[in-house]
């Protein structure tokens, strides 16, 4: 019996078992499937790919929504409240949190998981931090594939949360249908300090903490954003980005946000922008993945790792023209086996 | 005699002849050397690389200045005037014009060459359109290498002109020390209509056509820019981007621009930002070139060209997961000879 259990532990779960479990909406199997997808082990990777192939026909039917905002903007509290409301409406909500500044084992968003205590107790919710760091392109692939797995498991609302710093918003924009920016009213200069770029990436700005003493200020900030937004480029063709205010405590404004979201999906599906974007995102993902793999293959190549620092030094010192450096490195690389 | 001349025509100029000519500041040889660098012929390319290696110790001593602005902003007129003033001061001025919308044989900037008639008659001026279009990464490499050749030929002011549309400003920013945006006073909404991004790329904004009836409006526009600039990110550490006004007709403001430029170079050399940027630009160029060559090698590969459209269709239709598509394409590519 002991031997049998030991044996069972080592034996990988058959793909078909994953497929059945996911189809049945089993969250434990879903979590294991995501771990498989995330693994850098080659066998796991291959099994994960086979699994993806199997569940592919079941994917694509969710609302994919990105949520960004600087730390302190109230993302966790908002997702907790909003997600719980969605569950009450009968939605199945998956929350995938990407934290570029942390690794899987430690980091602020994993901490958030325990903060979203109420939501995590909901039967129709699934909360999962997305690993980051490590290998090139890993975040894209793993988060995108996790979205697909969640969709196959019947989750119809996928909330992809990211910290509003660095490159991660740009990455998330490429994998969601609608993108929300969460912000709070601040020291008056918060509009100036914010990177203009991010406002042109999002489809709605949500001013949080519109409650108590802060409510009036929050509404004022919302109005200021709406003024600025008129001057900026839209993130989505035919959709005017709007700012709204809400309180994750009182729940005021949450309904309005849900209406805005349903309108966004209705409008963009009607105009076809939704479908075009999904198609383009998939092809972009393909091309980006190829480029990343090519770069990975090159820059991780033993010979390149050995020669590149020397070449860099010579180029910096003006001893070697860039073009010759490139030629030398590439011919060394291509003449080796892969 | 005829046979000999015929023979001579076919024979390539020896590298050493190029080197000597460039060292002597011979503009005809310089022009031929640039043609060599620009050639897509493999022999020419190799000769060009050898030449670059030879002249590399003579490079790096110019002020590399980028100039951008939408068509009609008065770029040619400004460069004509400013360049002529620089020549009078004893500077040697090279103007390299990148026009992403045209090919070598035709296009608006080539037209500009004849418009810069006065400057092109100056003994210390050299005007050259930079080819674009065509192969991946060509513009970067060729313009960068042309800058090096001009420097070796003793040109101490390199003006890289580009039309302010699309990607070209971002590219030019990576190859110059200082970047100028030329603009005119407009219909009042010109500040709003302008992409915020470009203002965060440049080190000075020059409002041109500040003469006659237009002068007052131009000064007002300059002041408006200066107000906006305070809210934006600086392009260069420690340098506050400024707006100035000038007239390329009366020459008013041209001196002020020259003072601004010398201050920029003095300040950034003192702080070290100048040297750090040059070093980073070179390494970025190396890495970017490698990536471009890897992509070129992949996407131009016969097998990839044949399979990619089919793979794209299957991915779009949801028949094939992206990761599997990537794996298949890459193993097909790596298993072939290069």
Describe the protein in words.
The structure is a homodimer. Chain A is an alpha/beta fold. The first copy, chain A, has 3 domains: about 10-55, Single alpha-helices involved in coiled-coils or other helix-helix interfaces (Up-down Bundle); about 60-270, Rossmann fold (3-Layer(aba) Sandwich), CATH 3.40.50; about 285-335, no CATH class. Chain A is built from 16 helices and 7 strands. The first copy, chain A, has helices spanning about 1-10, 15-25, 25-40, 40-55, 75-90, 110-115, 115-120, 140-150, 170-175, 190-195, 195-200, 215-230, 255-270, 275-300, 300-315, 320-335; strands at about 65-70, 95-100, 125-130, 155-165, 180-185, 205, 240-245. The model of chain A is unreliable at about 1-5 and about 100-110 (pLDDT under 50). At the A-B interface, helix 4, helix 8, helix 14, helix 15 and helix 16 of A face helix 4, helix 8, helix 14, helix 15 and helix 16 of B. Chains A, B: It is an enzyme of class 3 (hydrolase).
Properties at a glance:
homodimer; 338 residues; alpha/beta; Single alpha-helices involved in coiled-coils or other helix-helix interfaces; Rossmann fold; 3 domains; 7-stranded parallel β-sheet; 16 helices; 7 strands; disordered N terminus; Methylmalonyl Co-A mutase-associated GTPase MeaB (chains A, B); P-loop_NTPase (chains A, B)
What is the domain tally of chain A? Answer: 3
Q: Total strand count of chain A, please?
A: 7
- Along the chain, the helix and strand elements of chain A come as HHHHEHEHHEHEHEHHEHEHHHH
Biggest sheet features of chain A: 7 strands, parallel
Largest interface between protein chains, with number of residues from each side? A-B, 47 and 47 residues
CATH architecture of the largest domain in chain A: 3-Layer(aba) Sandwich
CATH topology of the largest domain in chain A: Rossmann fold
Name the average pLDDT of chain A. 86
User: What percentage of amino acids of chain A are in beta strands?
Assistant: 5-15%
